[in-house]
């Protein structure tokens, strides 16, 4: 019973993966999500299940032990996982971006060393651009790497690392004075390996405690302090050729990340709709089920329509990237529309629940705290509009 968010043209393999993940979400995620989220508990059993299904290697090439699936498959898997619980897709997402970065921009040695371990989920990835003083404005990054003989030495403070503690490789963007005129060519991405956990997890690299959040619990979000971290050239993403190219590499990663956030938004909106449409048929007011009142039925119609539009845009952006084309504008559009619609759909589902929506016993309470994150993560709506308008103005220059 899933009329909404269908995707035409999938292969048998894609359909089979999605069925498996949907069943996993129904049986292993949804029944536990409320308890784990309220306790802010790391979902270790669910992560083990994801590992067993091979989800950490979903997009990693088969030669490195992965399943070699497309961005579209990944996005549709994320949609299913988020329908279960957004935090689960958060655990997969930074890992996926880092695996993508290594696959696209890594040296042969980096691929051989990291990808097989990432495919099994033994090594999981975090992605670090943001700092206490900047998020949208990536050029304002202050953390620095200075050359010291054959190595670099890193100093600075990073903020908001999703999977900051349980990951063991962090793709980290810092300034490197390459002498280039543009600030964007003075940035380098490092693949910093560390032990999972809190405290000093590698010499000079400290993960303080996790940041307390209003939602998106269970998955940890942390700071990262770099105090004289010694990083050989072999840890620069792409080696010597990657020095000064970190900004562009990370933006490439963010483009796939944006499709992922759009997919998450679709998954949450689908779940909110499912909850609302069920409740609207159970709850009676004025002698009729809520769904018998046109005002509520129309809300359901609008919610369903928004889900269809968001899903279509998300699939379009994923397919474009899979074709090898740049998808900055389309990924921006998908992320913008899906996250804004998700917030609206969740809000309407909450209203349909009346007072019960405010009770922690109802799933919609959790979705209400999760949806706002999607308006911010991987670039806020204002930043998406900046990217979209810049792309369109370039295309339609008069
Ligand atoms: C739970 C969580 C997890 C996160 N995980 C990660 C992660 O794993 N890795 C990572 O690197 N980062 C992560 N982030 C950081 C996230 O990417 C940033 O919060 C986001 O990019 C916004 O940056 P900011 O918070 O510094 O807001 P700011 O950049 O300070 O923006 C504040 C407000 O001003 C608006 N604004 C800013 N500039 C402009 C402009 N030029 N025009 C119009 N409006 C503007 C923004 O849209 C926003 O509304 C995470 C954040 C959260 C909350």
TrEMBL record:
Domain Acyl-CoA dehydrogenase/oxidase C-terminal: 244-393
Keywords: FAD, Flavoprotein, Oxidoreductase
Residue ranges of the TM segments: none
KW Cell inner membrane (keyword) present: no
Cofactor dependency: FAD
Domain Acyl-CoA oxidase/dehydrogenase middle: start-end pairs: 126-229
Domain Acyl-CoA dehydrogenase/oxidase N-terminal: 11-122
SUPFAM superfamilies on file: Acyl-CoA dehydrogenase C-terminal domain-like, Acyl-CoA dehydrogenase NM domain-like
Domain of life, per lineage: Bacteria
Name listed for the protein in its UniProt record: Acyl-CoA dehydrogenase
């Amino acid at each position: 019973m899933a009329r909404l968010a269908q995707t035409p043209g999938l292969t048998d393999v894609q359909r089979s993966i999605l069925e498996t993940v949907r069943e996993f979400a129904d049986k292993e995620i949804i029944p536990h999500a409320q308890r784990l989220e309220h306790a802010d508990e790391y979902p270790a059993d669910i992560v083990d299940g994801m590992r067993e299904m091979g989800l950490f290697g979903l997009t990693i090439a088969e030669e490195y032990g992965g399943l070699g699936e497309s961005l579209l498959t990944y996005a549709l898997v994320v949609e299913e996982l988020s329908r279960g619980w957004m935090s689960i897709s958060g655990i997969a997402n930074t890992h996926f971006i880092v695996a993508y970065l290594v696959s696209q921009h890594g040296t042969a040695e980096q691929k051989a060393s990291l990808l097989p371990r990432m495919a099994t989920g033994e090594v999981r990835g975090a992605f670090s651009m943001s700092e206490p003083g900047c998020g949208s404005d990536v050029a304002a990054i202050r953390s620095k790497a200075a050359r010291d003989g054959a190595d670099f030495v890193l100093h600075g403070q990073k903020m908001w690392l999703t999977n900051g503690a349980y990951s063991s490789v962090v793709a980290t963007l810092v300034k490197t004075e390459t002498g280039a005129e543009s600030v964007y060519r003075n940035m380098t991405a490092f693949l910093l390996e560390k032990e999972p956990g809190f405290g000093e997890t590698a010499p000079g690299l400290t993960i303080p405690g996790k940041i307390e959040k209003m939602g998106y619990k269970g998955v940890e979000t942390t700071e990262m302090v770099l105090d004289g971290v010694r990083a050989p050239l072999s840890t620069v993403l792409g080696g010597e050729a990657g020095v000064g190219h970190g900004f562009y590499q990370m933006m490439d990663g963010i483009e796939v990340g944006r499709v992922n956030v759009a997919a998450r938004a679709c998954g949450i909106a689908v779940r909110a709709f499912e909850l609302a449409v069920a409740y609207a048929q159970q709850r009676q007011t004025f002698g009729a089920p809520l769904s018998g009142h046109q005002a509520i039925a129309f809300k359901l119609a609008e919610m369903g329509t928004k889900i269809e539009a968001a899903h279509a845009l998300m699939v379009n952006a994923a397919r474009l990237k899979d074709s090898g084309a740049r998808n900055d504008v389309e990924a921006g559009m998908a992320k913008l529309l899906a996250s804004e619609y998700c917030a609206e759909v969740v809000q309407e589902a909450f209203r349909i629940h009346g007072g019960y929506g405010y009770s922690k016993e109802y799933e919609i309470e959790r979705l209400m705290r999760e949806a706002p994150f999607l308006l911010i993560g991987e670039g806020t709506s204002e930043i998406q509009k900046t990217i979209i308008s810049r792309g369109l103005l370039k295309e339609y220059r008069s």
